[in-house]
Amino acid sequence: MKIKLFNKIADAGISQFDPEAYEFSEDYDTYDAIMVRSAKLHDVEFPADLKCIARAGAGVNNIPLDRCSEQGIVVFNTPGANANAVKELVMAALLMSSRKITKGIEWVKTLEGDDISKAVEKGKSNFVGPEIAGKKLGVIGLGAIGVLVANAAAAMDMEVFGYDPFISVKAAWTLKARVHHVQNLKQIFEECDYITVHVPYSDKTANIIDAEAIAAMKPDVRVLNFARGGLIDDVAMMKAMDEGKIGAYVTDFPTRELLQYEQVIGVPHLGASTPESEENCAVMAANEIMEYLETGNITHSVNLPDMQLAQECKYRICIINKNVPNVVGAITTALANVGVNIENMANKGKKDYAYMILDTNDEVSEELMERLRSREGIINARLIKAKS
């Protein structure tokens, strides 16, 4: 099978694949899967053979999800694989936002002469900043990264408030007891000295920090964004900085306009830029692709339901269809009409689309597969034969 690479992928990920079964290139015209990091795929015309895309990272706003769903292409991400790398950078950013570290470093570089010790002692008072211990931190989003940030900040004696109406059971169990789980986002805006955002970008989260949110914040608040661009209204943020409301704004997504402000510390999208993170993401993405191509099982999909079904039969039919009535019945009837008995099956929907796995020991012909593909409501159907 052919895997097209749209970015440099860590060798640790590529080495997961069986070289006798998979090949890789950046130049394929037809291919079965894509591995990508940050390359934008919105203008890419996908071939008919494309079955899945794995994003080696968490955010997927560089991938046209709606078009992928319409074409029956499964999109994976790698949640949690870069969580520690981002957490470490956020903790460094908290300190930089408070202690004027970057400004002090830049000032020291301007000093001249052989003995700068007197100048250092005289000028250090210009870079005084508060400690973070005892201050209130608001964490918006308690996924893999948000929980790690909340726990780390609590360990540094910050009073931490976390907001996430959709927190998972796993995240809830790993969140330290001393972290306050608040139900109202406004409470974070009104009470916290530091605010950090850790939610994915979507229509619902775009500008989650807007002019109204900023107006509710405390004076001299420090705001951090190491999640995604577009989560904070830059225009509103610049207006607030003009008015002296913002103590510091640290962002992994700087713009030319933002960098004109003294309060802004721009970081060049370093959240996941560690060798460990790149390897973790690549390995997870590789395993997601192999599992789907070889067994039909889906793990960490963002546009279709996750599904795990042990393959115990000779043949497996995998179907992506529109999530509408009568499709399942039509499929099972079509199989029964040609004497194919279903030994095991699973079916699950996610918004407008659904995924189905059917296992059988009866031989499945290509003619039957073509009949399934031509049925109304079915986007694609794929046959996987068990390895002997």
Strand order of the largest sheet: 8-7-6-9-10-11-12
Low-confidence stretches: none
Rough outline: elongated
N-to-C CA distance: 18 Å
Report on the biggest sheet: 7 strands, parallel
Q: Percent helix among the residues?
A: 25-40%
Mean pLDDT: 96
- According to CATH, the homologous superfamily of the largest domain is NAD(P)-binding Rossmann-like Domain
Strand portion: 15-25%
At CATH level 3, the topology of the largest domain is Rossmann fold
Give the topology string: H per helix, E per strand.
Answer: EHEEEHEHHHEHEHEHEHEHEEHEHEEHE
Query: Got a strand count?
Result: 16
Number of domains: 3
Q: Nearest-angstrom radius of gyration? A: 25 Å
Task: Tell me the structural class.
Answer: alpha/beta
Secondary-structure blueprint:
Layout: E1 2-5, H1 11-14, E2 23-25, E3 33-36, E4 52-55, H2 65-70, E5 74-76, H3 83-99, H4 101-109, H5 117-123, E6 136-140, H6 144-155, E7 159-163, H7 169-174, E8 180-182, H8 185-191, E9 194-197, H9 211-216, E10 221-225, H10 234-242, E11 246-251, E12 264-266, H11 275-295, E13 315-322, H12 327-337, E14 344-350, E15 353-360, H13 366-374, E16 378-385
Parallel strand pairs: 1-2, 1-3, 3-4, 4-5, 6-7, 6-9, 7-8, 9-10, 10-11, 11-12
Antiparallel strand pairs: 13-15, 13-16, 14-15
Helix pairs in contact: 3-6
